[in-house]
Amino acid sequence: MIIFLSSGLFCLLMAAVGIQAQQTPSINDLNAECLGNVIRLSVAPLFEEVDTVFNDTQIINLTPGLATQCGFSFKFDPMGNAMFFASLQNCFSQNMDDKMFSLVMQFRLPGNHMTEDPVYRVGKTCSYTPWTSREILCDRNYMEVSVRRTLPDIQTIPKQPTGGPKARSGNFRRGAEAVASGYKMTAVVFSPSKNVMNVDEVQRKGYAIANTLTRLVLRSPHNAEETYLQNVAGVPMRVLSTSTFFEQKWLVTRVDATAVCPTPEAVAFTPEVITWYMPKHIDPLFSSDAFTMLEVYMGIDAKRLDTEEMAARNYSVLVTEAHIIVEIPVGAVGGNFKSHIQDDQYFVTYTIEPMLELLWIEEVAHENTSYKVLFPITTPPMARPPQVRNYTPLDTVPEQAVFVLELGTFNLDVELLNITFPTMVLTVAECNARGFNVQEQRSPDNTLKTFRMEVPFSDPVVFKERRAEQGVTTFTLQLIYGLVIFPEYAPFSHSAVVDAVLLDIVPPSVTGNCDQENFHITVDYRNQEPFFVVLVGKRLLNHEFAQQYLTEGDTDFTITLPFSSPDAVFEVRRSPKTC
């Protein structure tokens, strides 16, 4: 399995549509989608490197910090599959008149580094019109706001890397240069601190600012110095509030832009349900209380769901006077469980990334706002202690008996490595070679697994003890399962002792005596079930016959047969001597 981000960074290759993508083959393990103002790329766990080239010349190393600044995020499921999300207004997409946006990413398969590794490239061009007056995008690592600007001839800040044709990475933080007849962006004022920064300083501090043909774009990490927390309808929200100034000779104008995003404290958990509270009226974004909510959509991983899909997954969205409330069952389709170990104890968390997409219009300003939140949620660790279930059949003889054990239940990221017995440690392969038949079994929905094993009573790893006074033999199996969690290779173990008690085989005995009128025959079948038939004389002892003559005990029965019964036979025996 190839693990992404093993060193904490990855390389991302983006290029304009003009790159000759047809020179590299396409594969089904790469899938790009346009999802409104976001591009989503799904990647199977096959790739070792993700490279990118800008303008056919520059390779950009997209560290986590640069990804945040430039409008990229990524996530991985427990099986190594990756999803990349890119804002349409990211630093490296090709913007065509704020209507079409193109992004190309290149992936490299693992090779021996002695020859050129196979390269696969995927590109996507997305159309996005019309824009609303204000667009806010909250992703897992950044907050972005894009506002319409009406200033003429504003100098466009180059958002892409710059540098020579051989540059490994460029400096995209270059400020705007003066233009003969246009406005120039000169300063950004952050509220409420009133800190003033020029464009270069803004970008050096990890923010991003750019103006396109029709819009001003700002982006910030969630925990940036100039962001602040504000309680909105009881929900803590992170706020970025700015005023950007543009100058042209004797004229100065200002464009305000504010982004507000939810924090993890907006979520409440029970063992069964995740509840996410989103304020309906996000105060820092409104100039008055008069507004109309036009659209409310829910989705998963940036993709909208229709009402039928939501119902099938048991998701719900409730719009109240103060909040929009999203409820998701723990374990629902769309999320995944992850295994964890704490003090050699097994825990799981459930992670899902719901999306809320809102559209409202302010009635006074007559301006509409598109508000999208990609909001990853992970539950607190939940204890899931494994159990060994003993399905050993006891209605057999020791020579044919086997322990049938099942260990579980685990997530799919857990593997069984070995089993320790009192006298040896065996790998799974060695167990199977010994006849233990170790198998992995999965649930019908392919989300959980157990490990099943069969160990014969006759194997030396099984301890045998005969208890003659009780007429039984005890078979005991002690074992320690050695397990590991992928992809982090976190080891843990689970110990178990199982036993089985089999009755010793003791043959039945028959005794008899007589009194003055009857024969008394007692059959003691000891610890065995009376799986035999009884003939009295020449007749089978059936139910009707037994009611007349049979008396039953716990482990025996007695037949009392009168001398006069037709089933009794009298024989004359003569003694060789007479008195």
Automatic annotation (TrEMBL):
Residues 383-502 form the ZP-domain containing protein Ig-like domain. InterPro entries: Ig-like_ZP. The keyword Signal applies. Residues 1-21 form the signal peptide. Keywords: Signal. It holds the Pfam family Ig-like. This is ZP-domain containing protein Ig-like domain-containing protein. It comes from Oncorhynchus kisutch (Coho salmon).
